[in-house]
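User: I've been going back and forth on whether these two constructs are worth ordering. Before I decide, could you fold them both?

Assistant: Sure. I'll take them in the order you sent them. The first construct and its structure tokens:
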Amino acid sequence: MKPLDIAIAGAGPAGLAAALFLSRAGHRVELIERFEQPSPVGSGLLMQPTGLTVLDALGLSPAIHALGNRIDRLHGADARSGRTVLDVRYDALAGGRYGLAVHRAALFATLHDAVAAAGLHIRTGITLAKAETRQARTALHDPEGEIVGDYDLVVDATGARSQLAAASVVAPAVRELPWGAFWATLDCDGIAHDARALVQRYDAAKVMIGVLPVGRAHAGEGQKVAFFWSLKVADADAVQRAGLQHWKARILDYWPETAPFLDQITDWDQLTLARYAHRTTLPPVADGIAFIGDSAHSTSPQLGQGANMALLDAAALAHALSAASTLEEGLAAYAAARRNHVRLFQLLSYVFTPFYQSDSRAIAWLRDRLVATVAKVPPAPQILAAIVSGTLADPFTRAGLQECCWPERALQEA
């Protein structure tokens, strides 16, 4: 295929990774961002072996490891009884896999610095309203109807509430999820915590509190944790009206050891309310547009797959185009490459979410008694580790990737 003129809408992790892959494949790439200054949104996230493999393929593994924090297990307990409810260990699988918790700013900066070093152009302060296909080219329009640019291909990486996806012929049905979370990034140097685990406390499925050590947002800073509290989005205003001290007292009642973290929160402005939606664009291509990341699929963060799936999409799209003789063939190959993996993990996220975010005491009872017991019996630990790792179905081969050799990678990053 001849080199293409490609617009990438959205300069988040998905868009930045796609720009790197596609430019390295010889295509002419232009990034379009609605904010005047591209920047990350949110607190921390967990990079799985899938996402880490993509970053390694981009040559960015040393940079992200220098900022992130290795995670070896996910552990959750009932806040009242102390009973272990969740215990997923990466080493249940052979191969030496692990997770890497990172601040969103660290992931963004790692990718953005690489884009800048490659000399790729980012046009900022441009809002996109729709795309129009004309004579095998795709024109992007702003809200006033003015043409922003004309391209062989548009890659939509504008997120879960993408206007381009909503206006497309494959516009997905959107189910706004009732549960969200308050997030904060807090200092953790000198504070007792499990530095190698995502630790959570539950009260049935209506309360979930978590601490994720995410390393540094920027070189030279102290270590941070992402602290989160699950709640219904509709209840957020009432929680804030009741006052910060009332909210902190509720958390301390469940988990007194979080006091040194809560002491750092003195204003609601330090907390971000995250809202989630379940949607899947099938197929993730239409009228000269390839959808990647949350534009293609989004759901709750229970399995920690969002950013990792986005990075896999970027790699798979570039690989599919490189092996195709026409753009249409390449887009069809991209859709096929991601179909099974996306559908599987969208389904798993949809099924697992009520076990940790819902009003159902029956589901919570089942989780705490039956599921927690079964999870200890082989091959359940291995299956859970594969789900969390994002490797229950092979995501690598059809994206043109070879999974890292984890013992060697851990030795290099030690």
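The second construct, handled the same way:
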Amino acid sequence: MTRPRPCGPLSRRSALGVLGAVPVAAGTALVAPGIAGADQARNGPVPRDLRPGGAFDRHVAKLAAEDKFSGSLLLAHQGKAVLARAYGKANKRLSIPNRPDTTFVLASMTKMFTAVALVQLAERGKVDFFKTLGTYVKGFPADIADKVTVHQLLTHTSGMGDHTQEPEWDKESTKWTSTAEVWNGTLAIIRKMPLKSAPGTQFGYSNAGFCVLGEIVAQVSGQSYYDYVRDNVFTKAGMAHTAFYTKPQWQTDKRIAHPYGSDPSGGPRVDRIDDQTFIGSPAGNAFSPCADMIRFGRALHGGKLLDHAFKDLAMSGKVSLPPTPSSDSAVQTTHWGYGFIAWIYNNQRIVGHTGGSMNGGISTMTDTYPDLDWEVAILMNYDDLTVLNALSSHARRLITRSS
């Protein structure tokens, strides 16, 4: 069996606190305390097609009925829930349904947290974007340590590649049984990888580069990467249900959705938990429910995580990407910022990230609209980027059309 490749790796009371301890069937909307319902306070226009029963809601229901959508989604306007839905199974073997408060693995959406941590340290004067990797982390050869900059790592222009494509990763990563083994083993593989291109010369999406950024966070802050992100990102944003869970927790916690990967031969979807590493990395596989991703967007844009100047710096476009044949025609520009993707879509700014894995049972995305005050989170435990992109584009068209 081919191992899934990442695009990027609770208590009962606390889990239910996300959207209220109310049992619901799949497909039922819930409203969070702290993310109130838009119908309860009409503070701005909410298109009919984005409300319960509207065109977007019907689109999701149709995909779920066809077993193409399994997961949760939440659309919020001005911090108030407009639509919350959950379909499919979090655990098929135990017949546990996905709920609006189900926790999902995020894949590469995790890179946003790593980027915020790094920019926080820059804001405090502890990191310089244009200093080299070797200023902060030891053990890399000179052609990397003395040439690759923090700026290049954040913008995927460092020339570093993807450690998860290395044969040694395939051989060793699922054997690691502790956080220390994952951290040290991953960095050992990355340190031996040659550059794929000269630093600063071209864009090349790099999971390895973001793992190195996590090591910079650890070296500069004096905390482990996981502790720093917990204390300075998750806690400050009010993301009480977001964490880096271990594989044993993922396997046993009934509130965390299992990833159901597609079978290349066309057979039934397969639970891919056993193919995962012990814990996620700065490049991927933190865990979160939809409501916490909305809180993250609001905390970031509201200045709780970064001062406004550094927030704008992080999310402004640095590297322009050309459109692809599958690009939504309403996308006018796409840029990479510092750990964020920045789009101009129908003359509106959108900032966010996506995540997923080939055959790995993960498809995720989040969008924040800084000028329209909307947030969208779609977290799936199926690997189907076609479905994810269709839902993302549908929501974008309706939100920007209402502006």
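Notes on the second construct follow. Residues 385-401 form the longest helix (17 residues). The CA atoms of residues 259 and 361 lie 4 Å apart.
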